[in-house]
Design a protein that fits this description.
Layout (H helix, E strand, L loop, with lengths): L3 E9 L4 H18 L3 E8 L6 E8 L2 H8 L2 H10 L3 E10 L4
Antiparallel strand pairs: 1-3, 1-4, 2-3
Helix pairs in contact: 1-3
């Protein structure tokens, strides 16, 4: 089984930064409590640009990723945060040491 790594970089509307971070932390808690297939979920903010947020997520396998993407709280998170985001970049990878 090869773990799936997802890197998401979000550029936020400056006026929505705090609201986005609060919502993202709530989402992280939902994932942590409800998804045993999620090995890691980290949120970071660039030091030199506080409006750029990075999410680093690791899932057991593709089934865990698909489960995550279709949960009611993921759908609600995307609906709630889409207006807060100027740009979204997502890169998928596999963990090298599996």
């Amino acid at each position: 089984m090869t773990a799936i790594v997802i890197h998401v970089e979000l550029t936020l509307h400056p006026d929505h930064r705090d609201a986005y971070l609060a919502r993202a932390l709530q989402h992280k808690e939902n994932v942590s409590v409800s998804e045993p297939g999620c090995q890691r979920f980290e949120i970071s903010v660039l030091e030199d640009n506080q409006n750029v947020v990075r999410l680093y997520e690791v899932y057991d396998d593709e089934a865990a990723v698909q489960h995550h993407m279709h949960t009611p709280y993921m759908i609600a998170y995307r609906e709630d945060t889409t207006p807060m985001i100027v740009e979204r970049k997502m890169v998928r990878a596999v963990r090298a040491h599996d």
